[in-house]
Amino acid sequence: MTEVAGETRPFRVHARHVDGHQARIIEEASFEAAAVAYVEDFHPPVDADNEVSVIVRDLDDGREHCFRIDLDSGDAAPCG
After folding, report:
1. Cα–Cα distance, 44 to 3 (Å, whole number)
2. Contact criterion met (CB below 8 Å) for 43 and 24
């Protein structure tokens, strides 16, 4: 799927270590942007490395990705 600048779509995002019922719906242009927006807005608990893992599901097509967000740098990388 090609992402078009300026277009947003709905994502369901929740911290990996909590139940999915605590998810939030976030409108963003990409999986990565949705992951970072969730962490910025909802401040989920972090691990000892000051990182948090989040699950992001595209509500339009059902694709799902996991990202690990480094709160010191703001970098997002796939969970490994």
Report:
1. 27
2. no
Q: What is the pLDDT of residues 1-14, one digit of tens each?
A: 455 567 999 999 99
Whole-angstrom distance, CA of residue 80 vs CA of residue 68: 8
Give the span between the Cα atoms of 60 and 51, in whole angstroms.
28
> pLDDT of 1-55, one tens digit each?
455 567 999 999 999 877 666 799 999 999 999 998 998 888 777 888 888 999 9
Instruction: Report the predicted TM-score, pTM, of the whole model to 2 decimal places.
Output: 0.83
Cβ contacts of residue 21 below 8 Å, gap of 6+? none
> CA 58 to CA 31: how far, in whole Å?
8
DSSP string, 19-44: -GGG-EEEEESSHHHHHHHHHHHH--
